[in-house]
Amino acid sequence: MNIILRELRTSIKSLLIWCSVFAVLVTMYLTEFSAFANNDEMVDLLDSMPEGMMEAFRFNSFNMTTLTGFFGLLFTYFTLVLCIHAILKGNSIIAKEERDKTVEFTLVLPVRRSRIVFAKLIAAVVNCALILAFLYGFIIISIQKYLPEENFMKFFSLVILGTFITQMIFLSIGILLGCSIKQYKKSGYIGASIILITYIMTIFIDLNEKLDFLKYITPFKYFDTLLIKNELTLDWTYVIISLAVISVCLAIGFVTYRKRDLYI
Amino acid sequence: MKVIEISNLTKFYGKNRGIEDVSLSVEEGEIFGFVGPNGAGKSTTIRLMLSLIYPTSGQALIFGKDCIKFGHEIRNDIGYLPSEVFYYDRMKVKDLLKYSASFYKGNHTKRIKELADIMELDLNRKIDELSYGNKKKVGIVQGLLHQPKLIMMDEPTSGLDPLMQHKFFDLILEENKKGATVFFSSHILGEVQKLCSRVAIIKEGNIIKTEKIKSLLNDTYKKVFIRTGKNAGDATKFPGVSNLEIIDGEIRFLYKGDINDLIGLISKNKINDVNIEEPTLEEIFMHYYQ
Question: What sign does the dihedral B219-B223-B229-B235 (CA atoms) show?
Fold first, then answer.
């Protein structure tokens, strides 16, 4: 428990920064949305865009003048940012002990290594959840004046839930990297590359139907806002795949960290 | 009871040697010195005992328990002072010590205050504001606050001024009197000689000698210096004499053997002055280091 509390205490500052950045972003985008909201002229303008561009920006799938359409598009980017945070957090919460050379203190305490990793995992999950919860609350409060459509709350809550699961996937990959790679610098690079590659995959899937199988590989596609918009549910296949990926990453992470030499 | 029992412990970092086939044991209540030049494998051995790293082969028992399997239990009773101290920079000394204490059974607030007073450590400073020496003091307090049964120290005195070193040694001796076993790695022989009863010498990953300090000092050469007006030719034939130098009636040599024989020889001659000296521990260790 004391490890969890200490980790949370040290992350208060970064939590506040993340939350304020999101608050500013959401406020900015909503100012933009105020120009779109129920504005038929804007629909005409968007419709007149070239087909290729419409597809690349997914304007043909989402109606930008409704909250559902607007957040359906926008939230993909928020998810990306949250996942970058999650994978880096997962990696650094483990690897920082070696980076800051505090292993000779922390791991000489009378606790099992697995308990340390577990406590850090909990702290990181709380961290990710708090940022997401803040974002959720802040958006819900901010959009009240736009009178959200009937299904928006359900749609948006599912998007948040999907994002949370995606965050957890990347968090567990981050934990795995921090646990298994001795050189903390390397694990950071690998984490960043994984995000980049999986995100680029989502763009390729949209552009080329032959690459459709990639949707099982990139977690960014597991809970696509478009699917949530159309079906108003999360796809159970992907929930199960997600849980499997999370468990495997964490299991390998725990085992390797228990057995490996620490980098001092 | 044996507090530490290491048998055939070997550690390779890839192809690089850490330690090779190290065996030693430390009895309860002993202050055991672990001496060797830089890179000999002192820290590796200690880190293996703390299961920060894992051996390639061999094993280490601490309090009779395997140091890997029961690592977390064993560490309840170990106080460790690393050679370089790193803590969470943004914490206050007080909070860090409290945090550390929270992992050990019992209430250690009083002991923290006592130790901080002895070491003249300001508990309200932030860790990253502290000098190297002051960080070391935090390490000492942190290592001793739970009254460990085994104190492991890896070159503990670097960064401490002589006065603090003195206080620190008193502290260690006091803990030892209360029953703590001390494993003390160092390359400063003066402090080893002052504190330790037994010592192991490690060189290039191998233990080359484990010996009581007393017998190390006794069972060795004497440095002999004799001034005499006469020619001292017959000394050369005397058994046990080596490194003989004769300059203007001054004779210097190293002698190993029964001291009575030497005194006997000297008393048969008329001499002006004689000086028989113990070699310093430094000189003995240099002999092993080379």
Answer: positive
